[in-house]
Amino acid sequence: MWRHVLPALGQAGWRALAPDLPGYGDSEPDPPGTWEHHIEALDRFVEELGLGPVALVTHDWGVPIGLRWVCDRPGVASSLVISDGGFFADRRWHDLANVMRTPEEGERLIASYTRRGFGEALRALSSGITDDALDEYWKAFADDTRRRGHLELYRSGDFEKLEPYAGCLVGLGVPVLIVWGAQDRFVSVKMAHRFSEEIPDAELAVFQVGHFVWEDEPERTAGSLVDFLERRGVRA
Fold first, then answer.
1. Is the pTM above the cut of 0.70?
2. I need a surface site. Which of 14, 77, 97, 127 has the fewest CB within 10 A?
3. Within the chain, which residues score under 70 in pLDDT?
4. Domain 5-92+160-232, CATH homologous superfamily name and number
5. Is 81 exposed, middle or buried (0-12, 13-18, 19+ CB in 10 A)?
């Protein structure tokens, strides 16, 4: 997903890193694949590389993982980018997530995935999924442990866990950019506007694509990110 963004950031003089969470991409699984365990993994990654404060860019599940990490550790982020994900306790899961969260139904669904079917589903949602990109996304479903990790993640995703974080993002006092696909079927663009309303001085960039906004509008999204960081980011 970040293959277009990283070179643009590098050319602008930023050090850009895109970590794989455990069990995704080339990272080995590290069960359990829960929300909390991924937050701990992100914290270890940043600490072991001696990073920070970081300009944190989040998307999808990276939003609740990254934003909980930031709120629990004030000062670790100098700026935030929030993309196509939620961070509100009153949110409701979309239909696919509800199946993943349901015992037995989730197991049947995750066991039925094939690379061909997975690719067809992704390409129905995104015009930017190349064969190389599909190879990378499919790594997260390469074996039973990785597939089980998806169920563990969704089943740990109880939104009431976000109740203590109400108002946290505003309190951080860091620059925020919100990037969204106007046609997102999983996390409506209404969520982008809610973030924008709740975070004073947040910048909002909406593109006429779906959930995979970084894939479908690579040049414009990367340009928006670089522009935001050049104007409001803090280099480590």
1. yes
2. 127
3. 236
4. Alpha/Beta hydrolase fold, catalytic domain (3.40.50.1820)
5. buried
